[in-house]
């Protein structure tokens, strides 16, 4: 795919995400017509329809799109860094590592301001990723090793999170919904809270696209081309965890976006790492925006956690990837 075709593809995907977000403005306990939604979107008048659009639904859709883009790029960077097609924030333990300390702080240290939660999530995500990469020989082991290491770390941290939830009492229901991943009740403040972290991850990946591209080579080849692995590996890992640190305090665990979006983007065969990252961010925004619309439209007036919808959509992708890699894994085993 040429650069022009990649640009057009990104534009079409973004338009599709905007259409999905516009459709999300219509859905809820009070359904709006398209004409009403467009009218109050262009000329807010302070009435109930305007409040629904500007205070509740528009910031929610934008938060979902920003979170999806960040998680997708995070997955892309992790897959490239480890040269492993099964790497993503969930499977590598990054998401559980970010969520567990946030839950512990919320329960045991309620005096800590939520403004510090992304930094806490960043530290937890980096620690979990480091353990997973250590188990899988620096992320260079077989895909099965990375998957097993990440699942083990995730299960351990999830057990801690579950135990803490058992101690919360009445707060456990709201925390469980948050842990399942969702954007219910998210406002402009949540969007602005998340944006610096997702922007840092996406823009940072675009600025460092040449460095990230070199990680597709072997360590020896990359070092031979002058790449300082000891410096860039930790920096790229931090770059991959940044979006997760911003999304986790707002939306909890949104599964499979970081796994599916990079592979969907690569199917289009864009020319260059920068275009792959752009397509990946666009697909991530589209997937989560559509999942959010489905989550609040399937069982009106109730809602499903977005994490459940993305898991249902991404689960078949994960199974497909495992099946596609089964022969090579068997060959390595022999």
Question: What is this structure, in a nutshell?
Answer:
With 334 residues, the chain is an all-alpha fold. The chain has 15 helices and no strands.
Give a structural overview.
This protein is an all-alpha fold. Helices cover 75% and strands 0% of the residues. The chain has helices at residues 3-26, 34-42, 48-82, 94-108, 117-135, 143-166, 172-179, 188-207, 209-214, 219-224, 229-251, 257-267, 273-297, 306-324, 326-333.
Main features:
single chain, 0% strand, disordered C terminus, mainly alpha, ABC transporter involved in vitamin B12 uptake, BtuC, 334 residues
Radius of gyration: 20 Å
Helix content: over 70%
Overall average residue pLDDT: 86
Number of helices: 15
The CATH architecture designation is Orthogonal Bundle
Query: What is the CATH H-level superfamily?
Result: ABC transporter involved in vitamin B12 uptake, BtuC
Based on helices, strands and strand pairing, what is the structural class? mainly alpha
Strand content: under 5%
